[in-house]
Amino acid sequence: MNIIELKNYVLDADVRGRRLEPFDFTLAGGDMCFLSTDSMDDALTFLKALATLIRPRQGAYLFKGEPLNLSDHDGLLSVKKQIGFITSHSALISNRSLRENLNWIRDYHENTFFSELDDETRKLCELFSILRIIDLRPSEVSPRDCHLAITIRELAKSPEFLLLENPEDYIGLVNFGIFWDLLENRVKGDLPVVFLSNSKSFIRAFSNRKLVISQGKLREAPL
């Protein structure tokens, strides 16, 4: 079964982008989609649409075979929990510590407050060397550390699929090898990925499909 299916989708333009003309798209277990584009704004619009962050002008979004009501904010929260979104449009809650940000999804869905990190999140914090700063707020740490916290938060979800924007730049080359190993283990378990990257080695390692967005049109192309 496809994890997601977009039917007859039309996306309005970003401020600097183009309207994306009607397209169909499916994503199944094991799909690793490299996204090539002539407009970063258009590509990010597409990624945000996959993350259910923007509504289409027209079209249907099916998640695990069930149509989503994209106007139902509360109803979408359980779906968003299953989507990993690591891009320049990802954010932390500014008035909470990194620890609270990392625990936020668990706190919300279990209607409680956790002061301790779960085992998976703690392991990731140790790997990316941010345990020493997790009780600081985003404004008190570097942008790179915020990006690492977002990456940890999204990976710790154990998402159904993962959306990435240039991870080599987002988390930096020092951490890129750690991320590479983590992703390699997850795609072996059939985690689908849709990503942008300027790293030729990363593209070779993590793509079995190529998507092209050009002149406001989405198409699939040979690798």
What would your notes on this structure say?
The structure is a single chain. The chain is of the alpha/beta class. It has one domain (2-221): 3-Layer(aba) Sandwich (Rossmann fold). It is built from 8 helices and 10 strands. The strands form 2 sheets. Strands 6-7-8-3-9-10 form a 6-stranded mixed sheet. A 4-stranded antiparallel sheet has the order 2-1-4-5, with helices on one face. β4 (58-63) and β5 (66-67) form a beta hairpin. The protein starts with a strand and ends with a strand.
Provide a short characterization of the protein structure.
The protein has 223 residues and is an alpha/beta fold. Helices cover 36% and strands 26% of the residues. The two termini are 23 Å apart.
